[in-house]
Amino acid sequence: MCGIIGTIGFPDAADALLQGLRRLEYRGYDSAGIAVRDDSGFAVRRAVGKLNALANVLNDAPLHGTTGIGHTRWATHGGVNMANAHPIMSGDRVAVVHNGIIENHRILRQALSAKGYTFHSQTDTEVLAHLFADAVDQTTTLMEATETVIAQIEGAYAFAVMVADYPDHLAIARQASPLAIGISDAAVFVGSDAIAMGDVTQRVMFLKDGDYGTISKQDIVIKDASAQLANRDITIVAASPGLVTKEGYQHFMEKEIHEQPDTVMRTLGAFSKTDGADGTDGADGAFALPDGFDFSNMTGLAYLAAGTSYNAGLIGRYWMEQLADLPVVTESASEFRYRQPSTRHISLAMGISQSGESLDTLMALRYMADKGVDTAALVNVDSSTMARESGGYLLTRAGPEIGVASTKSYMAQLTVLLIMATIAGHQRGVLSDARRAEIEQMLASVPRLIGAAMASAATIKAIVPRLAQAKSCLYLGRGTLYPLAMEGALKLKELSYIHAEAYASGEMKHGPIALIEDGLPVVALLANDEHLSKSISNVVEAKARGADVIIIATESAAKLAMDEIEGLDGHVATVPDCDALIAPLILSLPIQFLAYLTAVHKGTDVDQPRNLAKSVTVE
Ligand code: G6P
Predict the structure, then answer these.
(1) In testing the pocket of ligand 1, which one of 334, 355, 394, 592 has its CB within 8 Å of the most ligand atoms?
(2) Does residue 311 share a domain with residue 286?
(3) Mean pLDDT in each 10-residue stretch from start to end of the chain (619 residues)?
């Protein structure tokens, strides 16, 4: 998703902007650009593709100046090309970087064209540039010009604008898309998030929706949505870990897969009472949730999320209903808020989101808040919009996740969802002290079991060349392994571009079985649960119709399947035996390896798959 960076007063603006863009790379992008004010006006450099391409352009034609803006673009309106890469100009008077969608851009484009403005790109952003040029003529201050522009645009936006007539200022605004201001002794910055400015400052002012204003080295003037002057607190954000590196792994995703034992350990630690967490849990369990998370009298819970986080929420639903007898709806946030859902029975709406910025999830939470429902967020970034806006939040400790396809933050989400269901079960009198202690024991064993499950990569590697030839494939699972199958199919699709669908094993006979023909890969997930014999029967049915069955299973479940089905040698990847409750966590490893290694085999862009963005801040 597009990323914004800007600075006023930094000695080498272009360098600071490029570093900021590198920090925003995790959001996903397909072109990038920088504009710097120099003695003769605005100088712009753009490049399609990765930031190294922009760095090369800057090497050949350096920019000199202390004020500038930069952008990584994830195409929404208009193709991926130089003309559509930001900064977008209005002549030599205005330069704009923008994240979001100006929804009424067509009508504005017509009006501006009629006034004589010429459009050079297909972007919705270009109307912003020309609107600024137009507004500057009708007003006497940059603030007034900004107000004139904002009054005309509809949609989601965060922007930073340089106007030639106001050389010492940037105009900024945010509506739904994130934007923050960073303050250092030497300069002022603006960025899509605190991470973007992490190299240069920890002092960050997070803007609220509807905020706009002007910034210069001397003063920061912010107004709120009702045009009143607003004071926004300066937050000291955690020291930045610096640019995240691959540490010798081929891809960030590979590194992040291997970090998962540590991720789970850190997440368990953060909720462990001995490590300092103290709050709501009712009695002497090993884990606690922050104060305010009391499930005792709740009538229903909604998990709202997108993508991989949605798949985590589906597994969380099985756990919460099973362990705490608390009804849960898990729903795609993008659907939920528009279908006029009945919210009467829902006591708490929890957004699940790695970034804490996905617009669909944020909007669904706001919808619930408007309905008077308590909200909470399960996020990986504590300075994120969802964390700040929700009634309370739970933090996963995955650290920065760079691979667009989520692995370790998904694992951390599952860990928190299981801790939460266990505590809720105990609070609600469904789980005895002894059962809770048993589950806590299992949770503590997860990092070790995940570590051991890494060994499945070797078997998966041998399976991958066959899977990589496929055009399409099915994933099957029952119980919590059904949403895990959904996650497996999503991962394979997004990384290796092979069409993959997940079905509840029991549903196969109701339709998808018609697809099975010689050689169709069918990935079946098996664990030592009450569904095992039924799930094996479903595998038999697929195999009888010629499917190329790939079994991903706990050791003893795999053994049972191999006893019952002939010809599975070389088609089975196993993980250590474990209780069915934690099986989705442990079986996630071979699922991730299957997608990762298939993508590596096919040579796709593993860390930044085509068309995908890490954090999607448009609808
Ligand atoms: C995008 C990413 C997915 C991610 C989803 C939700 O679509 O490509 O990998 O799962 O957003 O992101 P979130 O930050 O809300 O978990």
Answers:
(1) 355
(2) yes
(3) 91 95 83 94 95 96 96 83 95 95 89 96 94 97 98 91 96 88 94 88 89 96 96 80 66 91 85 57 74 95 97 98 98 93 95 94 96 97 92 91 91 98 97 94 90 93 94 96 98 96 90 84 95 90 90 96 87 96 98 97 88 73
How many whole angstroms separate alpha carbon 568 and alpha carbon 560? 11
Q: What is the dihedral of CA 438, 443, 445, 447, to 10 degrees?
A: 180
Boundaries of domain holding 230: 2-248
Question: Pick from 392, 418, 452: which residue ends a domain?
Answer: 452
Rounded CA-CA distance 544/553 in Å is: 20
Give the three-class secondary structure for 270.
helix
CATH of residue 89: 3.60.20.10
Ligand 1 centroid to residue 616 C-alpha, Å: 7
Q: Going along 208-262, which residue ranges are E strands?
A: 212-215, 220-223, 234-236
Measure the CA–CA gap between 179 and 586, rounded to whole angstroms: 37
Tokens 């049972």, residue?
Answer: 560
Collapsing DSSP states into helix, strand and coil, what is residue 465?
Answer: helix
Q: How far apart are CA 230 and CA 141, in angstroms?
A: 18
Distance (Å, whole) CA 24 – CA 161: 19
Residue in the block written with tokens 């399609």: 48
Task: Compute the distance between CA of residue 552 and CA of residue 510 in angstroms, rounded to an integer.
Answer: 23
User: From atom 9 of ligand 1, which residue's Cα is the shortest distance away?
Assistant: 405
Please give the Cα distance from 237 to 197 (Å, whole number): 10
For ligand 1, which residues put their CB under 6 angstroms from it? 306-309, 353-355, 358, 361, 404-406, 612-616
